[in-house]
Each structure stands twice: as C-alpha cells, then as structure tokens.
Amino acid sequence: MDVRFCGDEERANPSGGLCDEYRLSGITVFAELVAAYRRIAADHPGFRPLLTLDDFPQASYTSGHISDVLNLDDTSGADLSNLPPERFENGEHLGYLTTKAEFPIRARNFARMVADASFTDACGHGLTLDEEGWAEWIEYQGDPVSLLDQPLSAMLVPAEQGHDALAAFPNGYFVCDLRPALTTAVARHFTQVHGYELIGIGASYLGLLRAVPPDAATIGPIAADFCALYNMSGQIERLNEVMRAIVGRSHLWLRYTE
Known about the structure:
Elements (H helix, E strand, L loop, with lengths): L1 E6 L12 E6 L4 H14 L3 E6 L3 H14 L18 E2 L2 E2 L9 H12 L4 H5 L7 H12 L9 E7 L21 H15 L1 E6 L3 E6 L8 H11 L6 H11 L4 E5 L3
Parallel strand pairs: 3-7
Antiparallel strand pairs: 1-2, 2-6, 3-6, 4-5, 7-8, 8-9
C-alpha cells in the first residue's frame, strides 16, 4: 500500500484546494486502510481525514454541483481580511473558495445548513434498497475493499468530528439522494448513538468506522436504525441479515442514494 502526501494543489483535489490531502493506493486488505486512516489522524491533531470511497469522478462532479446549488461558498458577513491577495479582483472577492485560508467560510456555511437536520428527517426521505441495491450492499459490506475507487484521497479537514468533515466534500445532488444536511444527520446519529465515526464518502456511500466491532448488546439497535433508514423496519428477515452482515466488522457502509 502506498501513502503519499500531496498538499492542496493537486488538480484533482476533491476539496478544490480547501484542504491538504494524501493519496492512498494499492489497498488490498481493509485493515491496511484503517491503519493508514488512524495513522494520518494521529499525525494531524485538530484535523479529520475524510476519504473518498466509490466512483471518484462521479462523486467529484456531484460535489461541485451541490456546493453551488447550496451556495456553500457564500462569503456574506465573513472576515476576508486574512485571505491571500490573489483571491480578490479589483478589491472584490472572486466569489468561490479554493484555498485553505477560505475553509472556515465553507465550514461556517455548512454548519448552518446542517444544524437542524435529524436522523428522523433522513429516514423520512424515503430511501429504499431494492434487490439489486441490497445485493450490492451485502457484497460491499462483506468485502469492503471492493467498494473503493483507488487511488483514494484522504483530505485533512479542520474539524472536531468526522461528520463535520463533510463540509470539504459535500455530496447528495440528485432529488432522490440524501442531501448534505441529511447525510450529516445520519453520520452524526451513528456517531452519537452507536459509536461510529464517519471516515469517508463516495458517489453513493458513506463510510463509518467503530473502534471495535459491535457486540451482542449493540448490534440489534444498529441494525434497527439501518432498517429504519431504508424504510424496512418490521422486516425481521432483513433485520437478521443486517445483523449477520455487521457482526464482527468495525466498518459500516451506508448507501445515501437510490
């Protein structure tokens, strides 16, 4: 496995230059990725690594569009006095954010947008897993490396919690998708209630990680919330299958698109 620090100037930086990044490639065993993630986090206190996951080109495309739609680069009321001079033209800010110095503006806008969203709201959005989607999730949950579109980016996001790091790479553009406020609400819920942290996002999936796999006392509530998110509460067979898919595993993939 190769881990390379790239700074913030790579053309394909998924944050658009708002964050430094590492590039990770040659991942064959998921434990290698977990170890690299934790090592990067330990080496950069005050930052949360945010990994890209599935279908990097599509995720980058939709992230840019949803950032524009939600006006996440709005500088109204922000202190611009410490920004580099190249971010201005004729004394006016260029109107979009591309430097690490501008990330606090993005973080402010994102925090305001997601503040009131809840897990209940996300469950009410109407996500489902059809047979194809269910089979895909079972495959990825059982073989997590198969989900990954390598090389991965690990963005270094100045954030306290993993779900706050989504400000650097928000996603959920299409009407049927969970928008960024709802993906954040889902990740926040699984952090606060079930002990997972958000580690990444792709074009269709959120990646969550626990310090230890869920035990007999915790696996049922986790599976129940999984089923609630996809509107299959009460389907006992599905609930049991979810428990079998997550038992003994510290990771959890959650699809946020139809």
